[in-house]
Design goal:
The chain is an all-beta fold and 208 residues long. 0% of the residues lie in helices and 36% in strands.
């Protein structure tokens, strides 16, 4: 009888597990609208990328590849360095760094099942990470530091903030005689069943 040889499909462009890979030659657009559902966008380590990212479709992954320091998304004063829109359910941001925006990482209302894992968020003019009213979003193993307002602020149902280092987030100088009003982790109105465990919080204006 005859044999039928079925070749495996070719790997996606940009390397194993990556639909697109960015580096000093193949630079991301400014701003970068990610609208291809289920795609993985890879950023080479050791490089600062002058852009801001909008995740605007389900199940998109943004992650680091290669060796060296985390790739940095420098938002250049944008509202968010990385923003997950209402259409971004299931987004994952892995092993990245974000800086120089209002909010380092932020989600829109009803952006559910979002994962921020091992992300550094620092040097932003408002919050390091903001999670809006959504379901089952997770921030784990993140380093949130030196942001002007809160380290992490969240609302929604089933939010998990686990094993993060949150330090040196402090309010811009408050009016004379008033204390700073911002926090390492701040739970806004409407939080339901959050899980907050294993975090280290230091030197915020309210230290909590």
């Amino acid at each position: 009888g005859a044999f039928i040889i079925i070749s495996p499909p070719p790997p996606p462009p940009g390397g194993t597990g990556c639909n697109s890979t960015y580096d000093n030659v193949n630079k991301p657009p400014k701003p970068f609208y990610m609208r291809s559902s289920g795609s993985t966008y890879c950023f080479t380590r050791g490089i600062t990328y002058l852009t801001n990212i909008l995740i605007d479709a389900p199940n998109i992954t943004v992650k680091a590849v290669g060796t060296g320091n985390k790739p940095i998304i420098d938002g250049q004063g944008a509202n968010e360095a990385i923003y997950v829109s209402t259409r971004g359910d299931g987004a994952q941001v892995l092993n990245m760094a974000v800086t120089n925006s209002d909010q380092g990482l932020s989600t829109g209302n009803d952006a559910d099942n979002v994962l921020f894992d091992n992300v550094d968020s620092y040097g932003n003019s408002l919050d390091g990470i903001e999670l809006s009213a959504s379901l089952n979003n997770t921030v784990i193993n993140c380093n949130v530091r030196n942001n002007i307002r809160n380290g992490i602020v969240f609302t929604g149902t089933g939010t998990q903030i686990i094993n993060c280092i949150i330090k040196d987030n402090t309010r811009y100088p408050p009016p004379a005689g008033q204390e700073g009003l911002h926090h390492g982790i701040y739970a806004s109105d409407g939080c339901v069943n959050p899980i907050i465990e294993g975090n280290t919080i230091q030197f915020t204006s309210n230290n909590g």
